[in-house]
Amino acid sequence: MSDAVHNGTRLHGLVLRICTAWAILGGVVLLAVVVVNVASVIAAAVFNKGLPGDFELTEVGVAIAAFSFLPYCQIAGLNVTADIFTARASKFWLSLFSMLGAIVALIFGAVLLWRMYYGMLDQRTYDTTTALLQIPLWWGYAGCLLSLALLVVASFASLVDALTDMFRR
Q1: Distance of CA 50 to the CA centre of its chain
Q2: In Å, what is the CA distance from 169 to each residue of 1, 9, 89, 94, 163?
Q3: Residue 104: how many CB atoms within 10 A of its CB?
Q4: pLDDT value for 32
Q5: What pLDDT does 3 receive?
Q6: What is the DSSP string of the chain?
Q7: Which residues are CB-contacts of 33 (< 8 A; sequence separation ≥ 6)?
């Protein structure tokens, strides 16, 4: 884990625990998708017929799982970075870059949350479902929206941490 995880504020620690639990839940969803897919492959091999709708469960489950990892990556400082450019930077500059990254994540998270919320409303309004299992598509949006809301909170906590680090030194 990054230094920010160990040197963070109380807000950071709380958000980190919440994001960790949320990411683990996303991992459980992803594991369930894998189990369904393996069961479908085995059923296809043994009975010459896979589980109906397994690809629909995969679509929704993987989307929810992928979004659930975003807040954890943000708060734990585990997003992809170009360390070659920052290897010799001072703590101030590293904090400044962290602050800028948190601002970008905050803006992107807020915009995605805003637009996907309206996307979910459209899915509910038009009662859009998957073809075989008739799963309402807005359910997948709802899971992703929770992750995006947590991403906004994690980005804000990261921003507070970066500002604290900048002015502490």
Answers
A1: 30
A2: 21, 15, 14, 12, 10
A3: 11
A4: 98
A5: 47
A6: --HHHHH--HHHHHHHHHHHHHHHHHHHHHHHHHHHHHHHHHHHHHHS---TTHHHHHHHHHHHHHHHHHHHHHHTT-S---HHHHTT--HHHHHHHHHHHHHHHHHHHHHHHHHHHHHHHHHHHTT-B-TTT--BHHHHHHHHHHHHHHHHHHHHHHHHHHHHHHHH-
A7: 57, 58, 61, 62, 65
What does the pLDDT read at residue 122?
98
Q: Which tokens belong to 107?
A: 């803006």
Residues in the chain with pLDDT values less than 50: 1-6
Amino acid, single-letter form, for residue 165: D
Tell me the C-alpha distance between 104 and 73, whole Å. Answer: 14
Q: Give the per-residue pLDDT at 157.
A: 97
Tokens, residue 1? 């884990």
Instruction: Answer yes or no: are the C-beta atoms of 138 and 124 closer than 8 Å.
Output: yes
Looking at residue 9, its pLDDT comes to: 80
